[in-house]
Amino acid sequence: MAINMKGKDLISIADLSIEEVYQIFDVAKTLKEENYTGKPHRVLEGKTLGMIFAKPSTRTRISFEVGIYQLGGMGLYFNQNDLQIGKSENIHDTAKVLSRYLSGIMIRTFSHQDVIDLAKYASIPVINGLTDLLHPCQVLTDLFTVLEKKRELRGLKLAYIGDGNNMAHSLLNGCTKVGMNISIASPSGYKPQQDIVDGALANAKYMGSKVEIIDDPVAAVKDADIVYTDVWASMGQEKEAQDRKAKFASYQVNPELVKNAKEDYIFMHCLPAHRGDEVVDEVCDSANSVIFDEAENRMHVQKAVMALVM
Ligand code: CP
Ligand code: NVA
Predict the structure, then answer these.
(1) Is the CB–ligand 2 distance for residue 165 below 6 Å?
(2) Topology of the domain comprising 13-134+296-309
(3) Is the pTM of this model over 0.85?
(4) Which of 9, 101, 192, 223 would give a disulfide with 164, using CB separation of 3.0 to 4.6 Å?
């Protein structure tokens, strides 16, 4: 039976039930097939998505904008600096005003609390397009991509090598939600946030899966079905890039490291990739890499989210 998700925000995968996650995947699969066969699906005819960006974006912006267009609606791009929000107008008033014009808001910004507040005061759905804490649209897409490639999720092992950042956090939320095992290897001082790890441990206990937060990338990648990495310095941390390069040097995903994974492992990266740092060309461009399918799927999965909540 279909679950009514109309009006729901997407701030964190932790807020979704496992049934809602699989419903998003089902709708995404249908929309992707229809996209390939050219069958129109203008289910959001006349609706408008406002897209607020305080950080740069290639995939998120374009996949949302093309996605809402294909659903019969329209996307409006706003650079957060061009809006009154956070300068001469508070989040409360901005949320109330935007709710009078738009059918939904997608926001990419620094502070996760700002997105929570925007959703609290807005009467329309708010979709998190990345904060310093989480990147739920990316990880929903990643799980959908794993499902396409591996035909199942439960029991698979994902190894995440690198910074305990927004990607690590959403992967902890997402993998444990669907019963996958997750092993994260990060240098000390760059581990994922403890409250997120605790939530993942609780999910894993419920689903009978494993969560491992360790130092050793080789141990993390051992027998992994999926090897995942992300940049060492995220957007907003550019000043730390040099310092991080030294600290993360032994966390590079290269042919030597991936030898420890299962033979049919898949390599994933949310992109943009800093080739030569966290990953090298030989892995990125190998037959095991699914990074461009993953990027494409952003659009299909986000269309599903929009179709369900708007
Ligand atoms: N993966 C991702 O969110 O990419 P962009 O920063 O290009 O949107
Ligand atoms: N951790 C990265 C993800 C980019 C999609 C960042 O926040 O910059």
Answers:
(1) yes
(2) Rossmann fold (3.40.50)
(3) yes
(4) 192
Supply the DSSP symbol for 253: B
The alpha carbon of residue 144 and the mean position of all alpha carbons in its chain are separated, in whole angstroms, by: 11
CA 4, distance to chain mean position in Å, is: 22
Q: Is the pLDDT of residue 302 over 80?
A: yes
Instruction: Tell me if 131 CB under 6 Å of ligand 2.
Output: no
**13-134+296-309 against 138-294: fold identical:** yes
Nearest CA to ligand 1 atom 4: 59
Q: 138-294 sits in which CATH class?
A: alpha beta
Q: How far is CA 203 from CA 16, 18, 168, 170, in A?
A: 12, 11, 15, 13
- Contact of 310 with 282, CB cutoff 8 Å: no
Residue of 270, 277, 300, 302 with catalytic role: 270
**Atom 6 of ligand 1: nearest residue by CA position:** 57
Nearest to 79, CA basis, from 107, 47, 59, 99: 107
Q: Are 158 and 225 in contact (CB under 8 A)?
A: yes
**pLDDT per residue as tens digits for the range 189-236:** 999 999 999 999 999 999 999 999 999 999 999 999 999 999 999 999
Q: pLDDT tens digit string along 64-121?
A: 999 999 999 999 999 998 888 878 899 999 999 999 999 999 999 999 999 999 999 9
Kind and range of the H or E run holding 146: helix 136-150
Q: Which two tokens stand for residue 273?
A: 């990739």
**Ligand 1 centroid, distance to 76 Cα (angstroms):** 18
